[in-house]
Amino acid sequence: MVSKRGTYALRISGLGEGEHHFSFELDQQFFASFNHPDVQKGACRAKAVLEKRPGLMAIHFTLKGEVELECDRCLDFFSAGINATQTIFVKVGETPGELEDDVIMIGKDDHEIEVGQLMYEYIILSLPVQRVHPSDASGKSACNPEMIKRLNDLSSGRTQMNEKADPRWDALKNIIEKNE
């Protein structure tokens, strides 16, 4: 977990025991550096509290802001709020890496912990599973009306096609009904 970029790193060398506060501005450049299709733009503020105790370190993250997401329904982009808190525990050992979902190991000679990837992952994990435009003040969908109209037209056309059943399927249905 030695910092490659240095921008999103918590310097741990020289810190005494107790809590140490860090803050980061996660802007367009931050999101673009990960080149991930889910979130490419956003503006978030991240706070990290490094709790250093004998033999144990914990980092408590608080992430707040907005990211731009693509709507699953109309494919237009919209802003979604982010409000996440996570904690990760840090151990010092021989082989740096991830031990568990919430435990990482850093090398004995590491002087800082790179947390950029962790913050990005926490943002991704805080996103809703279904990403659609939120409703406006009157409760109406804020999705692109032209796209919604096209979707409705296509789905009504599909049901009309389903009503015209292939007669070969009727013969198969009769066989199934006789066997029941």
Q: How far apart are the termini? A: 63 Å
> What kind of sheet is the major sheet?
6 strands, mixed
- The low-confidence parts are 1-5
**Strand/helix succession:** EEHEEEEEEHHH
Sheet with the most strands: spatial strand order: 2-3-4-5-7-6
State mean pLDDT (0 to 100 scale).
85
Shape: elongated
Count of discrete domains:
2
User: Which percent range describes the beta-strand content?
Assistant: 35-45%
**By helix and strand content, what is the structural category?**
alpha+beta
- Count, helices: 4
Radius of gyration: 25 Å
How would you characterize this protein structure?
This protein is an alpha+beta fold. The protein folds into two domains: 9-125, no CATH class; 145-179. 26% of the residues lie in helices and 38% in strands. It contains four helices and eight strands, in the order ββαββββββααα. The strands form two sheets. It has a six-stranded mixed β-sheet with strand order 2-3-4-5-7-6. Strands 1-8 form a two-stranded antiparallel ribbon. A hairpin with a 6-residue loop joins strand 4 (56-70) and strand 5 (77-93). The longest helix is centred in the last third of the chain and has 19 residues, at 145-163. It starts with 8 loop residues before the first strand and ends with a helix. 19% of the residues are buried. Mean pLDDT is 85; it is low at 1-5.
